[in-house]
Amino acid sequence: MTTSNKVSISIQPAAEADLPAVIEFVHESKLALPINHVLFYDWPNNVAQQRVYRNAVESSFKEPSDEIFKAIDNKTGSIVGHLVLSHKEPAEGKSATVDGSDEIPKAPDGMNQEVFNAVVKYAPEMDTEKSVDHFVITHIFVKISHRRQGIGAQLIHYAIERAEKAGVPLSVCSEPAAHQFFLKQGLKDITHADIDLRKWVPELSGFGIFRMFGMAFKN
């Protein structure tokens, strides 16, 4: 897939050999998130972050409903981005928590349990299409060195094409920094949730409301 005057990429399924690259992409994508500065104790606590993201990526590779794609620069052959697309079935009667259980799970080691509780509470509500069969963009990332070259747009359009071909909607939980990007790609705001980070930081430390956006693209 290519975009005029933009870098030419190929979008291919990721293999287990790509695991380290995907883990690093997830880690890098989370470093700028304000909420992660209060979610993890002793920020940046890279040991805890790497452990959490490795477990998440390894689980995704093993999950049959998850598809992990890599964006390869056709000129250099290097991986410059990735997309995780999850197929979700209707969730009627299921718990609202992330893992479908009745209780909020214990936070991973190195995380603030109260902040973790807030994320686990609101994140499932951002999946606005959970009452029907649908796709979810679980994660998308483009290397900083390759941004503003159309790669992210190509990955989003790839996800949209997959959803359209399947005849199902596409949803995403957007972080504040990516919100405008998703809007430009045709996704619409459906709902949002606000987490007040000031509860967990000293006064006048510069933290405020962290807004999560529930967005969707429908045929």
Helix count, per DSSP? Answer: 6
Mean pLDDT: 91
- Briefly note the structural class of the backbone: alpha+beta
- Large-scale geometry: globular
* Oligomerization status of the protein chains: single chain
Specify the helix fraction band: 25-40%
The string of secondary-structure elements, in order, is EHHHEEHEHEHEE
Low-confidence stretches: none
What profile does the largest beta sheet have?
Answer: 7 strands, mixed
Rg over C-alpha atoms, rounded to the nearest angstrom = 17 Å
Strand order of the largest sheet: 1-2-3-4-5-7-6
State the end-to-end distance.
21 Å
Overall number of strands: 7
Beta-strand portion reads 25-35%
Describe this structure in words.
By secondary structure, the chain is of the alpha+beta class. It has 6 helices and 7 strands; from the N terminus they run βαααββαβαβαββ. The chain has helices at residues 19-30, 34-39, 46-62, 113-122, 151-166, 179-184; strands spanning 9-13, 66-73, 79-88, 134-142, 170-174, 188-196, 209-217. It has a 7-stranded mixed beta sheet with strand order 1-2-3-4-5-7-6, with helices on both faces. β4 (134-142), α5 (151-166) and β5 form a beta-alpha-beta unit.
